[in-house]
Each structure stands twice: as structure tokens, then as C-alpha cells.
Design a protein that fits this description.
Elements (H helix, E strand, L loop, with lengths): L2 E12 L5 E8 L8 E2 L2 E3 L6 H13 L2 E14 L4 E13 L7 E8 L10 H4 L2 H8 L1
Parallel strand pairs: 1-6
Antiparallel strand pairs: 1-2, 1-4, 2-3, 2-7, 5-6
Length: 134
């Protein structure tokens, strides 16, 4: 089975009530269209995961991020391929998270994390995020 190596940004912030919030995006294309995910993309040859994540977020969301520590590496078997996804804590440095490839996006509080239909690989990260931020 083909392995696809990707990176994902768990972009965190704090809302006006001081609660931690996480940025989620809804895919606008492909076989997994309409599923919710953490933004990111494929690692290109010669890139570190952190470089790939900065590039992908700039391309997809027109935003500069700071890449923090690795949360986890998710290994997930989809029917057509194996996904290896390095997930990092990230924060916005500059930009407004403009949707260039996604259908929609939301900032979710910890109580709202289950309110969207996460893609199968991404949902495996939700409890870890909740345990760290609450």
C-alpha cells in the first residue's frame, strides 16, 4: 500500500472568554471532500515537516504560522493508501486565515470539538488535544 506523508497544523488561540480554541477546515475537493480536518498537506522532497507545514499553510490559508512541538504522528490506513501525518501545535504569526482551497472553517472550543464530521485520521487526535488544553 502506498504511504503518503503529510503534516497538519493544530492552530490554537484563545477566544474572548479566555477559552482555548482550535482552527478546523472543511475539505473542498477530492475523495474526502466535505470532511473536516486540520489544515496542512504533503511533505515535498528535501523539506522538513516544519518547513512543509509553513509552506502549506501559506499556500492554503495565506497565513504565516509558528510551528511548535509535535503533538503526535498519526498512522492511518485509508482504503487506497496509508497516511502518516505529523501533527504540530501552531499559532498564527501574520495573516487572516483566508480560505483558498477549503469550503469552510471554524474556530472550535474544547466543548465544540465533536460538532464537526472529522476525517477518520484527524478524529484520532481530538482526545489528545482536549486532554492537553483542558
Amino acid at each position: 500500500m502506498k504511504t503518503i506523508r503529510v503534516v497538519a497544523a493544530v492552530i490554537k488561540a484563545v477566544n474572548k472568554d479566555g477559552e482555548p480554541i482550535i482552527f478546523a477546515t472543511q475539505r473542498g475537493y477530492g475523495a474526502l471532500k466535505d470532511g473536516w480536518e486540520f489544515p496542512g498537506g504533503k511533505i515535498e522532497v528535501g523539506e522538513t515537516p516544519q518547513e512543509a507545514l509553513k509552506r502549506e499553510i501559506m499556500e492554503e490559508l495565506d497565513t504565516e504560522i509558528e510551528v511548535g512541538e509535535l503533538i503526535d504522528t498519526i498512522e492511518y490506513d485509508y482504503p487506497e493508501f496509508h497516511l502518516s501525518m505529523n501533527c504540530f501545535w501552531c499559532e498564527v504569526i501574520n495573516g487572516d486565515l483566508v480560505l483558498k482551497e477549503h469550503e469552510a472553517a471554524k474556530w472550535l472550543t474544547m466543548a465544540q470539538l465533536n460538532d464537526v464530521e472529522w476525517l477518520p485520521a484527524d478524529i484520532t487526535l481530538i482526545e489528545k488535544i482536549r486532554s492537553v488544553l483542558t
